[in-house]
Amino acid sequence: MSPTVSTIVAYLFIYLVYLLGKLVLCLRYGIYDRHIFLGFGEKPAFTFSLNVVTISVGLFIPLPYFARFYSYQADGSKERMKMAWEYADRPILHRLLINFGGAFSMMAMAIFFFLIIGFTETQTFIGKNQVDKYGIYPDSLARSYGFEKGDRITAINGQYYERFLDLKSQFLENENTYFTVKRGNQNLTIEVNQEVIEFLGPEINLFSINCPFKIHSVIEHTEAHRIGLIKGDQIVQINETPIICLEEFAEHLKLHSGDSITLTIKRDEQLFSKPAVVPNIGKLGFYSTENLAYTTSRKNPLEAIIYGLKEPFRLVWLNIKSAYYLIFGGRPEPESLSGPVRISQYFGSFSILNFLKITGMILAGFVFYEFLPFPKTAMTRTIPLITEGLFNKPFNYKLYHRIDQIFWGLIIILFTWTIVKDISQLL
Predict the structure, then answer these.
(1) What three-state secondary structure class fits 228?
(2) Distance between CA 301 and CA 296 in Å, rounded?
(3) Pairing of strands 53-57, 35-38
């Protein structure tokens, strides 16, 4: 299934979950029209009964802002369907619960999905044992802070870490960061200036693992193909400089772009030299594999339950922080965008788990959206109930419609503000 189709299916499913949550509470509290028309058109394609409600269906598009709901009259005409808050003869609490029924059902479904993921997902990662074995290879920024090739990072902010990627995530999530480093017989502490990281953004990688690499495949009609490199070859030296990891090799190729170099190659435990000319792009033309041992693990039942219960709320909280950064500025965390940026990492070959993750993240995003004062959200529909409770007087629909229009204007102002703010930061 393609990424586009997966996303559309996810949105269709989420909207149906949203509608189902509201429908269940409407039936529970008796707040509904007796005959509902779904979709576009004057005449229904088919009609069916659901408990005490008759539903006629025309051209129905189950997507937000495209779905249409009407009160279907005995003479075949369609009228605007009353919202839950307009049933002034019913308790305010019941109408309030219906307002947020869609958010409740989406959150419940997100928890269900992440529980499935927690119990079934097998994770593969590079463990700390590989950092201990090979050490790190710092990039130029990390070297400016004092990191050196072969350093073993034993802790970050005084805390043990399990995975190599934890170094990056913990580093980006903390304002003040220090690394505990073992260099030979020395134990060092290296602090990193967060202001530089704020400027460079969450895509920064301070270091990689200093492990050997081998050629996996050679691209035809490239310099690597011309000099006879084959699968399994290991490049161990450029000119007189020993090479261990791929990042180190790539740095040296860029330094020698357009130059003639001598490569020392290890093949079947034999060493030999090959002259080569580095293309201007700084690449010889091969794919490589690293000599890393990956760790696989699964959560135990308690960890899976905790993950399933916490992850949806964590994603909602990250959306809240992302909105704050969007409006007021600041440094977003690496996972604080649960929309296309983060979701895109799960695209590729289709799998049920990836689909559940995509859908779960979108569900959390919609739950967050329902609590915003935006058009057609549960929060906006709660305003009439608040005023009714305060003044003991039913709210006017025309006034509600005007408020809805004002919130559309606020959205336009918000996006305009963020664009202007981003442009001003570039000037």
Answers:
(1) coil
(2) 16
(3) parallel
pLDDT tens digits, 198-217: 555 555 678 899 999 999 99
pLDDT tens-digit map of 109-148: 999 999 999 999 998 889 999 999 999 999 888 888 899 9
Q: Left (φ > 0), alpha (ψ -120 to 50) or beta: where does 107 sit?
A: alpha
Domains within the chain, CATH numbers bracketed? 109-118+299-370 (no CATH), 125-210 (2.30.42.10), 213-291 (2.30.42.10)
Q: What letter would DSSP give residue 243?
A: -
Residue with token string 């509470």: 25
User: How far is it, in rounded angstroms, from Cα 311 to Cα 115?
Assistant: 9
Q: Count other C-beta atoms under 10 Å from residue 419's C-beta.
A: 10
pTM of this structure: 0.72
DSSP assignment of 347-380? -SS--HHHHHHHHHHHHHHHHHHHTSS-TTSHHH
Q: Which two tokens stand for residue 40?
A: 């576009």
Q: How far apart are CA 178 and CA 185, in angstroms?
A: 19
How many of the other CB atoms lie within 10 Å of CB of 169? 16
Dihedral of CA atoms 11, 19, 68, 405 in degrees, nearest 10, equals -90
Residues 6+ apart with CB under 8 A from 216: 231, 286, 287, 288, 289
- Phi-psi bin for 65: left (phi > 0), alpha (psi -120 to 50), beta? left
Does the CA dihedral 147-149-154-159 come out positive or negative? Answer: positive
Rounded Cα distance between 126 and 68, Å, is: 50
- φ and ψ of 405, to 5 deg: -65, -40
Gap between the Cα atoms of 308 and 213, Å rounded: 38
CA 203, CA 251: separation in Å to the nearest integer?
19
Query: 62-83: buried (b, 16+ CB within 10 Å) or exposed (e) per residue?
Result: beeeeebbbbbeeeeebeebeb
| Range with the poorest average pLDDT among 174-188, 242-256, 340-354, 390-404 | 340-354
Q: What would the two tokens of residue 312 be?
A: 């949806």
Q: Which two tokens stand for residue 41?
A: 């058109």
pLDDT at 342 over 90: no
- Three-state DSSP class for 52? coil
Can you list the positions of beta strands (E) in 165-269? 177-183, 186-192, 207-209, 213-218, 234-238, 241-242, 260-267
